[in-house]
Amino acid sequence: MKTAQVCEDKIVIKEIEDIKLNNRKGAIVRVLGCGLCGSDIVKFKHKIVHNGAVLGHEIVAEIIEIDSDTDFKAGDKIVTSHHIPCGECNYCRHGNVSMCLHFKNTNIKPGGFSEKVFVSEEHLKNVAYRVPENISNEEISFYEPLGCCIRAIKRCCLQKNDKVLVIGLGSIGLLMGEALRALGYTVFGCDFIQERITLANEMGIQAFNSKNLEEFCTIIKEKTQDYGVDTVFLTAGADKAIETALKTVRQGGKILVFSSTPNNSGFPNNEVYYKELTVLGSYSPSPADLKDSFELLTSRRVKVKNLTTVYPIEKIQQAFDDTISNKIFKAYIEISKNSTD
Ligand SMILES: [Zn+2]
Ligand SMILES: [Zn+2]
């Protein structure tokens, strides 16, 4: 079977031996396609993974072989996430499921950018859903990334009519903005790239160029009766983004950190203290967040059309390059056609 593997500073297509169920509980799925996640880019660019690693986890797939106590069957088209919490450890008991060791150790194997993948019984029971016919593979591939956004939003405990700002309008920023909009909040957005700002505005996010920070702060003040926004979602990792967050959040407001930053710079102690700010992080979704994501996507409350560019697996390197150079919003790697097509 075909896989896309990390090989030094390239992604190369390699044939490996077909995987089989071999008396394991779970399913072998044919991957129809897999979204390219920002975390895949980070792992590739910063060489966090070893050579031979198969990246990708945002899969849409068809079951070809199954031994399961669930009601999934061969031929079903499914989406699944890759990590599952144990539900019992100290992290899980406090709701910090993405810190759970079991969560970090569970995965789909060998990885999403592969013709076939093993999905365990635990995945089928907790984080897999049958895909209805009314939604395209590219759209439903947002199941896991939207789950991440839903988790971040839930962690902020927003109030009805809250005004929020999304800093960074790449694919995950747009997705966060779209989810916040769908849930009824007033959403502002900012970025430096005009194409992103235009698309955000088309999606119902009031988006602005924040290159001139003073000017942008004036706009936000005008739109929030001088208060500043209730919560900032920081989806861009840069010192300038942190500065923007601190200057636009209202006193007593929240800053949700949703990306890493190259300098690992922090939030100034005194601003957090005097302004009574809450700074919190959000990492990876729980099964409950994923359930919400699935419902928001399949009911079409969250719309993700126009965000993806489709690449055949043979062009996966191009997809990585175009994502890194901000040429596209979100890549979807097409790996196999539906067998029913
Ligand atoms: Zn992802
Ligand atoms: Zn746990």
Structure description:
- This protein has 341 residues and is α/β, with parallel strands linked by helices.
- It is built from 13 helices and 15 strands.
- It has two domains: 169 residues, Quinone Oxidoreductase, Chain A, domain 1 (Alpha-Beta Complex), CATH 3.90.180.10; 133 residues, Rossmann fold (3-Layer(aba) Sandwich), CATH 3.40.50.
- One zinc ion binds next to helix 6.
Question: What are the SSEs and their pairings?
Answer:
Blueprint (H helix, E strand, L loop, with lengths): L1 E6 L2 E6 L10 E10 L2 H8 L12 E10 L9 E4 L9 H4 L7 H5 L10 E5 H6 L1 E3 L6 H4 L2 H13 L7 E5 L3 H12 L3 E6 L2 H9 L3 E4 L3 H11 L5 E6 L4 H10 E9 L11 H6 L3 E4 L5 H12 L9 E5 L3 H9 L5 E5 L7
Parallel strand pairs: 8-9, 8-11, 9-10, 11-12, 12-13, 14-15
Antiparallel strand pairs: 1-2, 3-4, 3-6, 3-15, 4-5, 5-7
The protein binds zinc ion (2 copies).
One zinc ion (ZN) binds next to helix 6.
